[in-house]
Amino acid sequence: MPRAGLDAESIAREAARIVDAEGLGKLSLSRLARLFGVASPSLYKHVNGFDDLITRVTALRANELADALTEASVGLSGRKALESIARAYRSFAHEHPGTCTLIQRSPAWHSPRKNKGGRRHDAHHTVETGKTRPVDEQNETYAKASANRFRRNDNDNDNRHNAADRIVRIVSAVLMSYDISEDSLVDAVRLVRSTLHGFVDLELNGGFGLKRSVDASFSVAVALLDESLAHLSQLNLHS
Fold it and tell me: Residue 114: beta bridge partners?
């Protein structure tokens, strides 16, 4: 019997659950259809293929991450704010390991965004690497046929990009208390992002095997990040 309340959000949430529990490779539209007790074509009334599904999952989790970082940074500045958002990011990644990685690597974020005037929006938070994944082969024919009657607008892409913008704005607000120049702000955001994501990615994938507390090492990493940010304005580097 089909599950009640089938809609795009419920499909995206179930997809996100699968990605977090088992990995992106275990997600497929046919599997979702079975879980919801419907035929695969029924999903296309709500999502426009696999790429659209990934866009929705990414937007869902990116907004949740933005909420977590916002809550963590309220009323704080400088090192305390940095430590708080670092802990929040690490906690979120542990709770959502698959989709947190997806937020960073989503191929849809690889292409610069186009605004309504047709110009590209080269946001500095755009992910610079990624691989695409095709729509399920068994549903590809139906997906192409249904595209003529199901035209998704740019709201989902906008939602995804708006969530990414929120994350960058939150991190940027924290970094402003380090007296970082506007020219160096992009470098600082990338430094924070690569440090936190790199550490957590290694941690989640068993990359730390030495007999030393990972919690202690994370604290050291954040402390060194704080020191680096404090001295960033003193660097005399030319792009």
Answer: 120
Nearest CA to 145 out of 55, 48, 28, 53 is that of 48
Quote the CA–CA distance of 204 and 110 in Å, as a whole number: 24
Query: Letter for the amino acid at 67?
Result: D
**Number of residues assigned to the chain:** 239
Q: Report the alpha-carbon distance of residue 142 to residue 41 in Å, rounded.
A: 7
CA separation for the pair 129, 109 (Å, rounded): 9
The phi and psi torsions of 120 (rounded to 5 degrees) equal -80, 140
> What count of other Cβ atoms lies within 10 Å of the Cβ of residue 158?
14
* 158-215 tens-digit pLDDT: 676 788 888 999 999 999 989 888 888 999 999 999 999 999 999 999 999 999 999 9
Read off the pLDDT of residues 69-97 as tens digits, 9 standing for 90 and up: 999 999 999 999 999 999 999 999 999 99
**Which two tokens mark 113?**
């965004």
Closest of 145, 157, 139 to residue 49, by C-alpha: 139
d(CA 195, CA 189): 10
- Dist. CA 212–CA 199, nearest whole Å: 14
Q: Is the pTM of this model over 0.85?
A: no
Give the per-residue SS3 of 88-122.
Answer: HHHHHHHHCHHHHHHHHHCHHHCCCEECCCCCEEC
